[in-house]
Specification:
Radius of gyration: 21 Å
Structural class: alpha/beta
Number of helices: 12
Strand content: 15-25%
CATH topology of one domain: Rossmann fold
Bound molecules: adenosine-5'-triphosphate, magnesium ion
Low-confidence stretches: none
Largest sheet: 8 strands, mixed
Oligomer: single chain
Distance between the termini: 29 Å
CATH class of one domain: Alpha Beta
Number of strands: 12
Mean pLDDT: 86
């Protein structure tokens, strides 16, 4: 359904060019739940925004993004708008800034429903109201009359995130890009939001790209997973395979960071920090932090190679 090939995103800033996303490739099949994990600042949101073509004005995007064979980066403004209306939607990391503070929830939700009617039948007000109510029901917001009349500041964070999800799924879309849909919320609400997304994905037969820091969430909710480090995909495979047999040194380190109930307190984390995107390492971007690094890692970028069955890939000079 979605295929991203060699995506590169750089940002022009005062000091020069930030080369953030550096040759990322991945794909999503119909009905598949794909996870994208990586630590903060590795370029997850940047990648999702590039797919929606809502990147910042200082960004340059190169590479290929194909949705059902259609070239997204080459779409005319009209086609792009049609594609966003009918095929793809995104739930943002921060539900507060995703809603317009000066319109009521009802105004915004109805507008989304109205605009999704692409030249076809015009919906009358009563029909729109019905769809809006059903959408709120879908995300377990019962008291629809009050919520529709409220402004975003009158709702809690969890409610706002539910509204954003309702907007994403109110009209039939095929692909949902969910960018850390729970991280700005407390843990219990985060769980509810994730369960909600997972139910919607199942009931409506959506494909989803779920962006998250949490390996636990990935394990529970996805069929396949991509691990991203500093703008590179370092490992990918079926979720079960990747957890059974993590292969790239970064993935191994990341899994080592999960606090375990039976473990000995809090883990050490991964020593060092993300590379500077102004002058990223020439070879493997994980090289400065990698316990197994050799000279070749500094000089040459490793290609993705098969390290296991069912398309389990890792980009490391010393794997397989
Ligand atoms: N418009 C911009 N101009 C300059 N740099 C930017 C811009 N947008 C993002 N960046 C930089 O790109 C890098 C990746 O940011 P991004 O938001 O994609 O990270 P992320 O993986 O989503 O992190 P998090 O998990 O914290 O959400 C960061 O270093 C960020 O500072
Ligand atoms: Mg992000």
């Amino acid at each position: 359904m979605l295929s991203v090939e060699d995506l590169r995103v750089s940002f022009r800033v005062y000091e020069g060019m930030l080369r953030v996303v550096d040759g990322v490739s991945f794909s999503v099949r119909r009905g598949e739940r794909v996870g994208l994990v990586g630590e903060t600042g590795c370029g997850k949101t940047t990648t999702m925004k590039a797919i929606m073509r809502i990147q910042a004005s200082n960004a340059t995007v190169k590479g290929k993004i194909l949705f059902e064979g259609k070239d997204v980066l080459g779409m005319t403004p009209g086609n792009l708008q049609r594609w966003r209306r009918n095929s793809v939607s995104m739930v943002f990391q921060d539900p507060t800034s995703a809603l317009n503070p000066v319109f009521t929830i009802g105004d915004q939700l109805r507008e989304v429903i109205r605009c999704s009617q692409d030249g076809g039948e015009r919906l009358d007000a009563a029909k729109i109201e019905k769809i809006a109510e059903r959408a709120l029901g879908d995300v377990s917001l019962g008291d629809s009359a009050r919520i529709l009349a409220n402004y975003p500041f009158q709702l809690s964070g969890g409610m706002r995130q539910r509204i954003c999800i309702a907007m994403s799924v109110a009209t039939s879309r095929q692909l949902l890009l969910a960018d850390e849909p729970g991280t700005s919320l407390d843990v219990t609400i985060q769980d509810q939001i994730l369960r909600l997304i997972s139910d919607l994905v199942r009931d409506k037969g959506l494909s989803v790209v779920l962006v998250t820091h949490s390996l636990g969430v990935v394990r529970e909710m996805t069929d396949r997973v991509y691990v991203m480090y500093a703008g590179n995909m370092v490992e990918s495979g079926l979720t079960a395979d990747l957890f059974r047999n993590p292969t790239h040194p970064y993935t191994i380190a990341l899994m080592g960071c999960v606090p375990k109930l039976s473990g000995k307190g809090i883990s050490q984390g991964i020593a060092g920090g993300m590379p500077d995107y102004l002058a990223p390492p020439k070879g493997c971007r994980f090289f400065p932090r990698c316990p197994e690094a050799k000279d070749v890692c500094r000089d040459e970028k490793p290609a993705s190679r098969e390290v296991g069955p069912d398309g389990h890939l890792a980009a490391c000079h010393f794997r397989p």
